[in-house]
Design a protein that fits this description.
Structural class: alpha/beta
Number of strands: 13
Distance between the termini: 56 Å
Bound molecules: ligand PLA
Low-confidence stretches: 1-20, 36-51
Helix content: 40-55%
């Protein structure tokens, strides 16, 4: 009998006992039938001319599905928070889980400049819906590289950068990871601890082996710089290192420029390959250039690196899935060969990227007025987040909530890593309908002046009642 047909307690040779239930008897009959048909199909392979009717592919033992064995997977630790939030009927519920910008009124925001660009695209009757090339929209790629590396970047001028349009930040990381697994001599990537939860999964699936380096110190709620230097210092030569370009997720803790410089020197001296994840350019400080400093320092030294860009947050194009992967290479010739291989990674994955979002980005980045308007709107979003930090910090102080909450105003970007533990988070969700990731991360972009008092009440209750 084929092993896959055996059930616990079911024996093909034993006949159903008189005490067995109708279900048992039915199963036994089914097992005998399957054993017979598998034996006859073994004979069929010896005599290919014999035809038999085999068991229906949908016949299972405990259901009518060949997928009956599939176990339910847990919800995603971040996107699952929104699933739970959506199910909650409470009128006071608050979603501080996913990093998606909301207005003071708690509404999603489509930037004015994005609406304008879309209008322009719709009005242009010459535009078609043809496939893009495998590497995406050429103008988009060119402008994205400029945005990341700076308009005057020698690497761009020397044609040493290849940029391919990918499916937002996630897709860019995935394509970059798979390219490295295929063509780079070191298959180990070091990611910070902690980091965005998807990094490990993305790089593992891409074929890399994932290790961590120390990054965050819970005691100071700041950077564990010593630990970081030690771990990168003892990484094998050539290893890949994932760096958050700015606004580290989930901690909101970034190295200073001086610390970046030390990291750069260490990494270059050991031949470690930097892979930047730039998901929040413009969101940390409100300035696109300031937030690209870390990346530009590494490119300025003439060395090689990778950068994954996302337009989800800084242009509010979350669902359009617009992003880019750039690989800065030693020479123009290498860059063009690298690009030819990136196409081989992309083509069987999703063939070519979508046209609409990239056209919006290219329209905005390619028009001086629109670009300026974008930077103003972007600064507006960053400023509102910073103001939320101050409001939350002031309100916790005013209420006398125990603890030092200064990290709320020291941390950078979309998130505050509150320091609240899993139990406290669960308590806040249950009692206050406040949704956040279980590691205590809150999306400051989901908060507004109106909802600060509710959050403060919840935090106060959590830290005084749940230890
Ligand atoms: N890299 C980092 C560091 C991120 O935080 C995110 C998104 C991405 C890449 C990918 O974004 P994209 O594919 O949409 O461009 N992180 C979010 C959303 C905002 C998520 O988990 O997907 C977060 O809440 O952490």
């Amino acid at each position: 009998m084929h092993p896959q047909f055996r059930l616990p307690g079911a024996h093909s040779s034993s006949s159903p006992s008189s005490s067995s239930s109708p279900t048992d008897r039915r199963l036994s009959a089914l097992l005998r039938h399957l054993a017979d048909s598998s034996a006859s199909s073994a004979m069929d392979s010896e005599n290919p001319h014999t035809t038999t009717i085999s068991a229906s592919p949908t016949s299972g033992f405990d259901s009518n599905s060949v997928f009956a064995h599939v176990v339910r997977a847990p919800e995603d630790p971040i996107l699952g928070v929104t699933v739970a939030y959506n199910k909650d009927p409470s009128p006071v519920k608050l979603n501080l889980g996913v990093g998606a910008y909301r207005t003071e009124e708690g509404k999603p925001l489509v930037l004015n400049v994005v609406r304008q660009a879309e209008q322009k695209l719709v009005n242009d009757r010459s535009r078609t819906k043809e496939y893009l090339p495998i590497t995406g929209l050429a103008a988009f790629n060119k402008l994205s590289a400029k945005l990341m590396f700076g308009a005057d970047s020698p690497a761009i001028q020397e044609n040493r950068v290849t940029t391919v349009q990918c499916l937002s930040g996630t897709g860019s990381l995935r394509v970059g990871g798979e390219f490295l697994a295929r063509h780079y001599h070191q298959r180990t990537i070091y990611i910070p601890s902690p980091t965005w939860g998807n990094h490990t999964k993305i790089f593992n699936l891409a074929g890399l082996s994932v290790k961590t380096y120390r990054y965050y110190d819970p005691a100071t709620r700041g950077l564990n710089f010593q630990g970081l230097l030690e771990d990168l210092g003892s990484a094998p030569s050539g290893a890949i290192v994932l760096l958050h370009a700015c606004a580290h997720n989930p901690t909101g803790v970034d190295p200073t420029l001086q610390q970046w410089e030390q990291i750069r020197q260490l990494m270059r001296s050991k031949g470690l390959l930097p892979f930047f994840d730039s998901a929040y350019q413009g969101f940390a400080s409100g300035s696109l250039d300031a937030d690209a400093q870390s990346v530009r320092m590494f490119v300025a030294d003439g060395g090689e690196c990778l950068a994954a860009q996302s337009y989800a947050k800084n242009m509010g194009l979350y669902g359009e899935r617009v992003g880019a992967l750039s690989i800065v290479c030693g020479t123009a010739d290498v860059a063009s060969r690298v690009e030819s291989q990136l196409k081989l990674v992309i083509r069987p994955m999703y063939s070519n990227p979508p046209i609409h979002g990239a056209s919006i980005v290219a329209t905005i980045l390619g028009d001086r007025d629109m670009y300026n308007e974008w930077t103003i709107e972007l600064k507006g979003m960053a400023d509102r987040i910073i103001s939320m930090r101050h409001q939350l910090f002031d309100a916790l102080r005013a209420k006398g909530t125990p603890g030092d909450w200064s990290h709320i105003i020291k941390q950078i970007g979309m998130f505050t890593f509150t320091g609240l533990n899993t139990e406290q988070v669960a308590f806040m969700t249950k009692e206050y309908h406040i949704y956040m990731t279980s590691d205590g991360r809150i999306s400051m972009a989901g908060l507004s002046s109106r909802t600060v008092p509710h959050l403060v009440d919840a935090i106060h209750a959590a830290v005084t009642r749940v230890v």
